[in-house]
Amino acid sequence: MADQPPPPWPLSDGEGLHEELLAAWRDEHRGYHDLAHLTAVLARLDELAAAGTAYDDLPVRLAAWFHDAVYDGERDAEERSAAWAEEALPGLVDEATVAEVARLVRVTEEHRPAEDDANGCALSDADLAILAAPREQYDAYVAAVRTEYADLPDEVFNRGRADVLRSLAEKPRLFHTAHATARWEAPARENLERELSGRTAATA
Question: 93 pairs with which residues across the strands?
Answer without folding.
Answer: 90
